[in-house]
Amino acid sequence: MPASERVPEVGLSAGTAALTDGELTVRGQVRDASNAVLYCETVHEGRTLNCVYKPVAGERPLWDFPDGTLAQREVAAYLVSEATGWGLVPPTVLRDGPYGEGMVQLWIEAEPDDGALLALTEDTEPAAGWKAVVEAEVADGRTALLVHADDQRLRRLAVLDAVINNADRKGGHLLPAAGGRLYGIDHGVTFHTEDKLRTLLWGWAGEPLPAEAVTVLAGLGAALDGDLGERLKALITTAETDAVKARVGRLLETGLHPAPGGQWPSIPWPPV
Q1: Is 269 exposed, middle or buried (0-12, 13-18, 19+ CB in 10 A)?
Q2: What pLDDT does residue 45 have?
Q3: For residues 75 and 93, is the Cβ–Cβ distance under 8 A?
Q4: Strand, helix or coil for residue 121
Q5: Which distant-in-sequence residues (6+ apart) come within 8 Å of 81 by Cβ?
Q6: Which residue of 48, 237, 240, 270 lies most exposed, with the fewest beta carbons within 10 A?
Q7: pLDDT category, 136, cuts 50, 70, 90?
């Protein structure tokens, strides 16, 4: 079924409509990606946007995710992000392109982070304003503490990742942008029915969710029972959509950030 028939365009922003309907031209390739990632331009009604195009044909098979589904999962992550109102994922659509159907996402020009989000420290405890993640081995057999900023933007991403069951929240998937915005990208390995949360944002594990997150999760639960749930079922399976609802329910029931489950490695590798 064509992408335009699978994903309703209700509520799409002008920028997302340009991604959906614009003339897509490949300008280059992102070389260090595990799957095919093409840097493109899309031109629509006189407007040119830079974007990323990940064709389904360029997806490498994974042992634990169905083949040819990563692009749909990226779009599903965008829809959930938009439903939170936090705008954590760049506008993302599913459409046909020069190499067949794929995910097209607005290109975000990252700002220098200057170590403001993630860092390694030789201290045994995190400094004020930082949260400990894990003790890591570095050069010459030495160890260092991996920390992330105690930052509201990262905390929102941690909540989103818990909802979508993100199996790959690496440091390189965090994009600080103009105006103090922070985006998360690369959401192809998400929405599995089994607990696969792997992230560098464990600093709040076991801590109470902030009131803002509880309010957002309650609204998300209602949306999943309505239009959002129907839109997700066009991209992921019914069982996976039900699992999203269950994860939201557990977060609301416990009122806590989740902790590593122990069944899978909790830190993505490589972590950058």
Answers
A1: exposed
A2: 87
A3: yes
A4: strand
A5: 87, 88, 89, 160, 184
A6: 270
A7: confident
3-state secondary structure of 42: strand
Residue carrying the six token digits 């260090």: 32
Nearby residues of 4 by Cβ (< 8 Å), 6 or more positions away: 20, 95
For 99-108, 171-180, 216-225, which range has the lowest pLDDT when averaged over its residues? 171-180
- Could you identify the residue written with the tokens 């946007």? 49
pTM of the full structure: 0.92
Alpha-carbon span 88 to 184, nearest angstrom: 6
Report d(CA 87, CA 83) in Å as an integer: 8
pLDDT (tens digit per residue) in 152-178: 999 999 999 999 999 999 999 999 998
The order of strands in the sheet holding 23-29 is: 23-29, 38-44, 47-55, 100-106, 92-97
Report whether pLDDT(3) > 70. no
pLDDT of residue 46 exceeding 90? no
Amino acid identity at 125: E
Beta-strand ranges (E) seen in 107-257 are: 118-121, 130-137, 143-149, 174-176, 182-184
What's the confidence (pLDDT) of residue 11? 35
